[in-house]
Amino acid sequence: MNKVITYGTFDLLHYGHINLLKRAKALGDYLIVGVTSDSYDLERGKLNVQQSLLQRIDNVRATGFADEIIVEEFEGQKIFDIQKMGINTFVIGSDWEGKFDYLKEYCDVVYLERTRGISSTALRQKDYDIVSIGIIGSGRIAKRFVKESKYVSGVNIEGVFNPNITSAQKFKEQEELQFATDDLKDFFSMISAVYIASPHQTHFGYIMEALKAGKHVLCEKPLTLTKQETMLAYDYARKEKLVLLEAIKTAYCPAFKHMLLLAKSGRIGNIKDIEASFTKLVAGNIRELRVDMSGGSINELSSYVLLPIVKLLGTEYKKL
Ligand code: C2G
């Protein structure tokens, strides 16, 4: 028996999906379809899937092409499935061309021409706007943010603000954005959310300007330099029903969240003591080593090591 496997989210099932499943089935005798779990989609940046896993499985079953449906739950599962189920052919649409060549070690890999003119993304856009994001600051971290955001559906990085227009222009060219500006009012008029990656001492000012312009804010850590400023900013955002989020990426890493759940479940007993460290090889005249630049390594990195302590032991400390 020639066993074929394919994977997908199959959100808002459309004829592009049906076409794919039909041709996949025709490549063998038995078709297995792996439907992505909600948490796996979140992890791989598909943040705006509309239908639940159960609905999406029903969609696939209703096509009549699947002999068996399984759930895809984690990165790396494909190799495991192929070996366990003795798969002969792995099939996927041509939008993934080349991406699954690593599976050739285990079975045949076939990329089928993607059906043009239809996608779940386009169907979703009828009801949900793409969030247009502008970046304040155009340094080292901002660059990484643009790169990473390409994996996230439902958002688009539109442009960049920097009071130094030459730097903004250069960033715009390099990252292929729509616009660069040194005028904050113009900047806010072109976007609906802001990512702030400017020097620490400018965070609070930009946060308040953005909130006052009615924009949601994601700001690099430390959010501000004093507790008072932080409280002011959060109060204002709450009042205006705007999102204000500090960009401590560890807090949103699935592995970190999982570790917290395990620790809180009592699996290793009562937590009495937490040791956390952050190691980094640095050289030169950089922020981490410059106390004169808003606190040096404490403001730059301590949020990472404080995070597990605060999450597990809370903030009611007796002595600091
Ligand atoms: N597809 C297609 N034509 C379209 C849209 C999608 O042929 N117009 C194909 C995709 O190439 C994929 C399948 O339909 O093979 C499912 O697409 P999605 O639901 O978008 O799932 P995807 O994110 O591509 O899942 O492990 C998951 C897989 O790696 C890919």
What distinguishing features does this structure have?
320 residues; alpha/beta; Rossmann fold; 3 domains; 6-stranded parallel beta sheet; 5-stranded parallel beta sheet; binds [cytidine-5'-phosphate] glycerylphosphoric acid ester
Description of the molecule:
The structure is a single chain. The protein is of the alpha/beta class. The chain has helices spanning 15-26, 38-43, 53-63, 77-85, 120-125, 140-149, 165-175, 184-189, 203-212, 227-240, 254-264, 296-313, and strands spanning 3-8, 30-36, 68-72, 89-93, 108-112, 131-136, 155-161, 179-181, 193-196, 216-220, 244-247. The chain folds into 3 domains: 3-112, 3-Layer(aba) Sandwich (Rossmann fold); 129-247, Rossmann fold; 258-313, no CATH class. Helices cover 39% and strands 18% of the residues. The strands form 2 sheets. It has a 6-stranded parallel sheet, sandwiched between helices. It has a 5-stranded parallel sheet with strand order 3-2-1-4-5, sandwiched between helices. Strand 9 (193-196), helix 9 (203-212) and strand 10 form a beta-alpha-beta unit. The mean pLDDT is 93. The site of [cytidine-5'-phosphate] glycerylphosphoric acid ester has 19 residues, from strand 1, helix 1 and strand 4.
